[in-house]
Amino acid sequence: MADARPEPDLLEQACSVYRGVVTDPAHFAALAGPLVDLARQAHEHEAQVVALRAQAWAERSTYANRNAKDLLDEAARIARRHHLDARLGEVLTSRSAVNLELGRIPAARRDLDRATHLLNGEASAELLLQQAVLLHNVGRLSEAAALYARVLADAATTAATRAKVANNLALIDVVDGRLDAAFEHLEVAAVAAQTSGPAARAFVAQTSGWVAVQAGRIGEGLTRFDEAAMLYVDAGLPLAEHYVEYVDALVDLRLLPEAVATSRRAVAALDGADVPLMAAEARLRLARLALLSGDPDRAADVACGAAAMFRAQHRPAWAAQADVLAAIARGQQTPVTPTDLTLLRRAAGVLDSRHLTAPAVEAHLAAGRAAVALQRPAVALKHLDVAWELARTAPVLPRLNGRVAAALAAGLRGQGAAVLRHCRAGLADLAVHRSSFGSAELRALASGHGSELGRIALGLARRSGRPAQVLEWMELTRAAALVAVDPQPVDGQDDHLAALRSAHAELNRTREAGEPEPEALRVRVLELERQARRATWSQHSAAPRPADAESVPVLRTALAGRVLVEYARLDGSLFATVLDSRRTRLVDLGPVEKAEQETAALLFALRRLAAPATDRSAALARSGADLALRRLRELLVDPLRLPAAVEHVVVPSSSLWRVPWSALFDGPVSLSPSAAQWARTSRPSAVAPGDKTVLVAGPGLPGAVHEVEALRALHPGATVLVPPDSRVDQVMAALAGADLVHLACHCTLRADNPAFSALQLADGPLSVHEIDLRGLAPRRVVLAACDSAADVAYEGGEMLGFVSALLARGTTGLVASVVPVPDLDAVPLMRSLHEQLGQGVPVGAALHAARSAIDRQDPRSFVSWCAFTAVGAG
Fold this sequence. Notes:
This protein is α/β, with parallel strands linked by helices. The chain is built from 38 helices and 16 strands. The chain is elongated and about 100 Å long.
């Protein structure tokens, strides 16, 4: 016989606390335990069952799922003993959620099956929701979506449940490529979440961020992720789930160091928690990051571990994704085997059956590649064709994978024109995606998504032997991120940059005093840099303008008699196209490794010459530099049979950007990240050039003030800023609208974070990040600073540094150094250079004339002769 009904106050309290724990665990969790004790003491069994359920849900919200299961087991025993069938059904529904997170899928199913026979009426929406969640997590998305839709259509469904259901439907919509539907469901979820407590608001903000990133609305997505993190904390929820989903956004942005750090935080948080379900997903992401970071051995190991976890959890779709990743990683280390192909084909079938578009595209593409490697073209074509068909309507990044598959399939069929068509279309998609970013860093990183399409097309063009086509694809695969975008203000940017500058200045004072760097100060600087970068990641370009490659006739007109030499590497080989006034030529130059080795040897010798310890060390360094220069000419210039009497425009491959190109040619030379970029710098500006000249000396360089004073005589009306007046704000104000700027400063090169390479001014650094953020673009700039031309290369032929930032904003001509230079010894070169620039001579010819007067027998003058490079046509 069932117990008599309990006192309503205690039962109502228990029900109220349960609802509160579900929606706001931070505020209600502490109430559940005492309520259990009260109900137990009062022998009010129904209230005790409900209170135990509330206490269990509070434990679940902090990932203490084993504790939660113990509490729910106790609640189930009490409910059975006292024939509380409806309450038992509710307990089993909750326990199924806990078993799911513990990775016990069969147990979760059994609980739901038992609950189905016990629950009806108002509680049925919660049961249907949990059934849908289980199906969702095992990859049966269409069945899950049908159940979610039933719950959403029920007018009796509570706001909290509506928020969860609409939120989860948005996730399925994205997987199915229905982005508009995803945003519509998120609107429904957001409305319901407003009256459902902070937990629901946190989950919806998190999903909104993920969906926005998948839709290419990066700025919005990152902003929502930041909001979600704060909401998670406010709701008292652990951040591990936030970390796991944020990793996906960081990977899509190719912010791999940040993604690795976030993924490790997620794994660390989850390894100590009772959520094997989420822990396995975090490990899969860590495996993908290892693969993207160039560690296939670790990627294969972690992916195999994740696959084993997924199989133990009865999650075949997730296991299939891990299998695909493991096979791709193994294929980068050892030859593909028939076993690998069988595994990939089986995984692709599983992912197809679950309608998981992006993972299925990846699986079919991997299976197609494996079949090609095993010389099974019919099998390869089948999988590559399926990959493209699935990807046609997918978001941009899976669609790029589909374009790769389509290009490979066209290549197998011998359809060269189709190969190039797919590569061109894919790169055009990527250009639109990339140009929406307000951050130069993100634009440069995004180009890596198109690197394989570029390699496929460039390889086909090279095999065709048609130089003009090769040049076109060289251009389509480099410096596309240097499209000018309108800088948008970032809230609080002035205060933030001032704080960063102050911290850097404090760090520099510590270094100058010879004292150890305080760890807390270094951490503060890094955190301020991280915050500054993150602020720009959320920017959208106000007027995105994807860059197009220039045609050969247009380039020839812009060159006006100059000769263009553009270098590229492919599969370890180096080649160049040469464009002059009459024809275009293609020249093979052998292994790129030789040129890279000689470049490293030359840069090392020049650094030694800049500050030789003894006459003997100077002689040895000079001998090494001369040898490296001679070998570089033999490798990079002599095979091209170039005319000596004309100016040359050189577009290096990214690994050869730091070659001292001026020292390899007998005539004037100007560099550019791409021929199209050089052509843009050659065109007349819409704004008539003024005559404003700005001369700036930074601190800590004995020759900087002397250099600026020597140049003042050549520019009588110049704005001159020397320490202590050469402060960042004053310098930036002076640079705005300037025709010619000379900056004699220390330069700090940050290969780890090139956006924060910086010129040292009187009150702190002026970074690449700040130049880009403020849109500073004097018409011509002389960076008389060490390593100021040493931009950092990114995958996809992109560069980031002072040169690329200034060119992207509209500077037409620069002179900068690829190595450290002795400041006092550079004064004669700088004076001669400015005499030429003052007469309107373009930077390439001006630098060549200035260099011709240098005494190359003097070791330090020889360094200046080699180090400075002209960039652009201005």
